[in-house]
Design a protein that fits this description.
By secondary structure, this protein is mainly beta. Helices cover about 10% and strands about 45% of the residues. The chain contains 2 helices and 10 strands; from the N terminus they run H-E-E-E-E-E-H-E-E-E-E-E. It has helices at about 1-15, 80-85, and strands at about 20-25, 40-45, 50-55, 60-65, 70-80, 90-105, 110-120, 125-130, 135, 145-150. The strands form 2 sheets. The chain has a 6-stranded antiparallel β-sheet with strand order 3-2-5-6-7-9, with no helix packed on it. A 4-stranded mixed β-sheet has the order 4-1-10-8, with no helix packed on it. The termini are far apart.
C-alpha cells in the first residue's frame, strides 16, 4: 500500500495545476529581465488576504495565481517609492481567460489550463502585459511577461 501511495503523491506533484509565472522586462525589450523594487502586488476582489508580495525587496518575477472559480483575475501593482506612494499610484492588470479542466488521475483529480482571451492594464508604469504562448499550463516556465516603463540609463 505504501508504494502505491508514494507513486500517487509523486504523480500529483508532477501534474500540478497551472500557475502563471510572470517575468519583468523594460518596455520595448523582451531579452533583458529587470528587477523592480518598492512594489506591492495584491489581488482585487479576493476573499481574505490577497497580498502576493509586500515590497520588502526587489523582484524580477512572481507567480500570479489565477482564480479557478472565475474567468477573470485582477492584480493591483502598488508602487511604494516615496512620491508614487504618496500619490497612491497603482497599475491594475486584468487577465480574462477560459478555464479548461484536464483530468490528471483518480488520485490527483483535475488541473486547469487557462486559455488567455485578453489582458488589460492601466498603463501607468506598466507598459503592457503579454502571454507569449496564449495559454497557462502546468509546464514550469515563464508564461507571462510584464513590461515596465523605466528611465533610460544615461539620461
Amino acid at each position: 500500500m505504501m508504494s502505491v501511495s508514494g507513486c500517487s503523491t509523486e504523480e500529483c506533484l508532477q501534474n500540478k495545476t497551472a500557475l502563471p509565472y510572470a517575468g519583468f522586462y523594460p518596455s520595448g525589450d523582451s531579452e533583458k529581465q529587470i528587477s523592480v523594487d518598492s512594489l506591492e502586488i495584491y489581488g482585487y476582489d479576493v476573499p481574505g488576504d490577497s497580498t502576493l508580495f509586500d515590497g520588502s525587496r526587489a523582484i524580477s518575477s512572481i507567480y500570479l495565481p489565477f482564480r479557478p472559480d472565475h474567468d477573470t483575475t485582477v492584480y493591483i501593482f502598488r508602487y511604494l517609492q516615496r512620491e508614487l506612494a504618496t500619490a497612491d499610484i497603482k497599475d491594475t492588470v486584468r487577465f480574462i481567460y477560459t478555464r479548461n479542466p484536464r483530468f490528471v488521475s483518480s488520485a490527483c483529480g483535475v488541473s486547469y489550463v487557462y486559455d488567455i482571451k485578453s489582458i488589460q492594464c492601466t498603463e501607468i508604469l506598466i507598459d503592457s502585459v503579454t502571454a507569449p504562448r496564449g495559454i497557462i499550463d502546468n509546464m514550469d516556465n515563464e508564461n507571462l511577461r510584464i513590461y515596465f516603463r523605466v528611465a533610460n540609463e544615461g539620461n
